[in-house]
Each structure stands twice: as structure tokens, then as C-alpha cells.
Amino acid sequence: MEKRLILMLADALALPVLLWASLSLGINHFFIPESTKEWLIFPLAVLISLPVFIKFGLYRAILRYFRNQTVSTILLATLLSSLAWAISVKIFGVADLTKSGVILYWLGSFAFISGSRLQVQQWLYGDLAKKQKNKKVYIYGSGAAGSQLAALLENEPGYTVKGFIDDDPSVQGWKVMGFEVQSFDKAAATLFDERDGETEVIIAMPSVEHSKRQFIIDRLEPFPVKVRTIPAIADFASGNISVSDIKDIDIDDLLGRDPVNPDEELLPANISNKVVMITGAGGSIGSELCRQVIQLQPKKLILLELSEFALYRIEQELNDLMEKNKTSIKLERILGSCGDKTLLNRLFEKNPVQTIYHAAAYKHVPLVEENPVAGLNNNIFGTKTLAEMAMASQVETFILISTDKAVRPTNIMGCSKRTAEMVLQALAKSPKCNTVFSMVRFGNVLGSSGSVVPKFRKQIEEGGPITVTHKEITRYFMSIPEAVQLVIQAGAMATGGDVFVLDMGESVKITELATKMIHLSGLNVKTKDKPNGEIEIKYTGLRPGEKLYEELLIGDNVKGTKHPRIMQATEEYYSLRKLQGLLENLKVSLSGANIDDIKDSLTKIVDGYTPWESDSQPASVAKKSATVVTLGNR
Question: Which of 332, 265, 270 is nearest to 298 (CA)?
């Protein structure tokens, strides 16, 4: 407020002086009013100009971000105020004016208003810019988004735009916004070796296909530059963009793939105009299921969640999403466990549920290894209770979210998920079953709770070290939205007892992922050979139950489906009668809470379960992975 009042006072004092000088230049001698009436032209100029300037927001402009857009506004505001003043003087016959005097007054007021703002900006923020670390910025992409980014950064303290990089030969050598457009090879040869300040490359290509973006990131990684990107082009078009919106490279850009268009018949099959229930609705997978299901217009969506906060958060998000899309879908919030028979009985009596997506599970391998009773009760017996009650209530479709850790597991969590799969397989083949049970198995999802990616990013921000369990450890990764979209489509193809396996792409070596994240932050890995590097990678050893390599298939019997990234596995399981007996034995072991008895019971249920003992055990089990995974990625 004080800055605005000071600016208004300065304008009120300067405008009469500018007016007198303009009129004097217009008549080639000093202008001296000949009557009291003529003196009124000076306060009249102030009384007309200030309201016009206020209307145009000249006193609301943030001086730190003063730029070309503000200058054009000042040009228009001073023109209108000068014309309004001249017309008023003419109408009221206050004085005789020359055209040159009026034009000079307009140009003078424009020069003063814009010049004073620029000067104040320099006074207020010039020292700040000098104190801040100077960041040299190269903008990858010289199109509309790149041009707007250059205009944004031009007046931003601490940033120096050095030029554009563009792969289009037709624009190389030209100048955009006064900055040269260079080829990548030229930039790499002459620019990226500058070390007297932090250097950034900002990718300003928001609509480019994923493969092209990944290609750009890969070619930038070896250079000592920090790589960032801009948000969606729609944000730039609306003008609602600031430097704080420029973001670090999303992990999807490092590991994701070009999306495959979904089958528009499969997506709505189990959802549209149906009563849908999602368990674990507030978790990483469950919440994304909620977002995608709500877009497919179910008749009602039931959210079952054990965490009060997670349930509240997803319900608020869904309400905001419906308001934004101008839709209205009834939500029912159920706080509780999927293993609570009393709760489920009331729920199914009240709601004619048609589709269930079962995402509720304890999934953190070391935690379940240390808390086997809770993990097995929830993941196995909670699933069994929910599935049996769903079958009794004539639920049409039941889809279990499973994991690659269910394949030849070395941990209790993997055992629990494989056993849950076998429960559904056995129920699906029981004579009285009218529910279509299926399960979808996939690997790690990007950004989920406990994911390595946010952990690595935090460790880099803190200066390291990055902690990796083993130098050779690999994992499959998929974005949460892609995984959920494939889950929905897989469930629509099920006929009963189906085990679907998602094509996770190529496995990723975690050490290489950590190295890439360090490089794209503009830093180097610290090693014995490179002691001057900024971030060290430390190996902490495999955690209990952890394998070096994960796999997606137990056997080699796999076939494709109508979707190129969904496969169907045929795997052996026990009859319901035999499985019931094995689960009773497991219950006895759980009641005694003896870890050796529990593991012994699991070895009798899950074929290929090798309890975790040492670093060598997971490695030896993983030898089988290469052939099996290759089949899974066909």
C-alpha cells in the first residue's frame, strides 16, 4: 500500500511539470497561463490521469515482474488520459492547445510513468539480483512456449537467458526475443562447459511426445547442467505462470513410455452406471482408481479405507473433481477394514455392489517381514473375507490388485499376495460362484508411498548421500495412471480366475536411476575416482525379504490379450477344499505368532517361496528372471 501511495504522489507531482514542459515545447517558448482559468489545466490533468491509471491497474502492477506487457498497458493508459484531458480542456474552453503540445504531453507522461517504474524496480530489486547466484538459462525449444518463457525470465532476478536450443534446422541461426537459436551440437560444444555459475536447461516443449522428450533428457544428462521443464501449455496461454511453476524433470519423463490409447469399450464395461466399490481408496493405487472411475460415470462409488485422513483427503479431491467437471456422483465413505465381516455385511445389505477393485493391502516388504501377523491377516484373510462376501452378495466383478513380488517370493508380503491370488482362483472355480474374479499383477509404480524416487530427490536436495540397497538391484516401474488404466481394462476382459500381467517395459537398474537423477540436478556423483563430486551413492545391503530382481510370471505359459500391454498367465493353484486346509494351518501359526512356524506354513502354500536368509539367497533365486521376464514383455 505504501508503494502505491508513493507512486501516486510522484505521478501527481510530475504530471503538471510534464504538461508545462510539453506545452512550452509546442509553442517554442515558455508557457505562462494568462488567466486563472488557464491555470486549471494542471490540476485537471492530475484529476483525469490518476483515475485512468488506477483503472488500468498501474498501481497494482508488481514492480519486480515489470515487463513488456506492463509497458503496453502504460502506453494505452497515458494515451487515453491525455486524450480525455485534451477533450475536457476543449469542451470547457479552459485554454487553447496545440496538437504538438498534446502529443508531447502524452509521450512525456508515457516516458515518465514507464521509466519511473523501471527505475524503482532497479532500486528495489537490482541489488537482490546481484546478490542471488546467477543462473545461466538455455531454453530448449524456440516456439511459443519458449518465447513466453524467455519473456518471463528476462526480468527475473538471478536468471540470465543465454539463448535457445532447437533441433529444427530451419530456425537455427535466427534470433527469437533477441536470443540466438542454436543447434544442440553447437550448444554442447561451446556453452555447456561454463562453470562460473549454475547453468540450467529448461525444456519448453510441453506438447512434445514422450519419446522425443526422453531423447532430449538423455542427451542432456552427461553435461554439467540442471534440467528442468515447464508446465502444460494451457498454463502459459492463460498467463497464469511464474518462475515457481518451472519444475524439475518428472520421473515419468525418465522411466515412462508413450501411452497406448485405451480401448474405449473396455474402460466403462465394469463401471459406467454401476455401483463400484474401491478398497484402500486413499492409497496410491486406490486413489488413482477413484479418480479414473469417477470419470467413467458410475451410479455410485463406495470408498472403503482404514485411514481416516486418507479417506477424508480422497473424498475432498473427488468432490473438487466432480465440481470442476460439473458432474454429480453419489459417494459413500466407509471407514474400516476389508476383513471386518460385520461392517461388510451391513455394506452389502445396503448397497447392490456390482464391481469391486480390491487395492487394500500392506505392501511395504520390510514392515510386513517384521509384522507378519498383521500383514498376513490383512492381505490374505481380509481378501478371503471380502471375496467370499462379494460372492454371496452376487457381486458381478472382483479385481485384485496384485504385485510382481508374488512370483517366487522371498518375503512374507509376496507370499501374502500370491496366496490372495490363489484364494480368488479357487473361489472362481467353485460350483456356486457367479462372481468374475480376476487379479492384475504389476511392479513398482512411480511416486507411490515408499517409492525410491521421492526418497532420492529428497536426499539430493539435502546434499546426499543417496542410499541404494545393492549395486545390481533392478526394478520395473510404471506410472500410477497407466497402471490403473490397464487394471480397469484387464478387469473388463476377465472370465473368471484370470491372472493378468501388465507389460512393465524394461527393468531399471536403481544405481543408474540414482546417477541420472544426480546428473539432471546439475551435480556429479562422488566416487573414489571423482572425489570432487557433490553426491555420493552408498550401498546399504539388501533388506529382509528383498530380492535383487523381480519377475512377473511363475511359469512360461502366457498369452496375449486384445490389449498390447496386458498379458494373461495360466498358473497352477489349489482346489478350494485343499486351500482351506492349508489356510487353517496358517491361522494356527499366526495365533502362536512364531515366525518359524509362520514361514513353514507359507512354504506349504506358496510354491517357490524361499524365506529370506542372506544377500546370496535373493540373488540365486533371481537367476530365473531373465527368460521369464522376456516372455512377459512380448
Answer: 270
Give the pairing of strands 198-203 and 135-140.
parallel
Say yes or no: 44 and 181 in one domain.
no
Identify whether residues 160 and 100 lie together within a single domain: no
Residue range 202-256, pLDDT digits in tens? 888 887 777 788 888 888 888 878 888 886 655 555 555 666 677 777 666 666 5
CB-based contact 206:232 (threshold 8 Å): yes
Q: Bigger pLDDT: 581 or 472? A: 581
Task: Find all residues with CB under 8 Å of 26, minimum gap 6, and list them.
Answer: 97, 98, 99, 100, 101, 102, 104
**2-51, pLDDT tens digit by residue?**
667 777 888 888 888 887 887 777 776 677 766 777 777 888 888 888 88
Catalytic residue (choose from 135, 162, 363, 405)? 405
CA angle 183, 185, 189 (to 5 degrees): 120
Same domain (yes/no): 462, 603: yes
The strand ranges marked E within 510-565 are 525-526, 535-539, 558-560
**Same domain assignment for residues 485 and 576:** yes
Q: Does the residue 328 lie in any domain?
A: yes
Measured CA to CA, the distance from residue 328 to residue 337 in angstroms comes to 27
Domain containing 617 equals 275-632
Q: Which residues contact 124 (CB under 8 A, 6 or more apart)?
A: 63, 64
Q: Is residue 265 in a domain? A: no
Rounded to an integer, the average pLDDT of 399-423 is 92
Alpha carbon distances (Å) from 116 to 19, 91, 147, 171, 455: 17, 32, 26, 37, 48
Asked if residue 267 is part of any domain, the answer here is no
Is omega for the bond preceding 465 within 30 degrees of 0, making it cis?
Answer: yes
The C-alpha angle 6, 7, 13, rounded to 5 degrees, equals 90
Query: Does a structural domain hold residue 175?
Result: yes
Number of domains in the chain: 3
405 assigned to active site: yes
Q: Are residues 563 and 614 in the same domain?
A: yes
Pairing, β 535-539 against β 474-475: unpaired
The model carries a pTM of: 0.69
Residues 479 and 623 placed together within one structural domain of the fold: yes
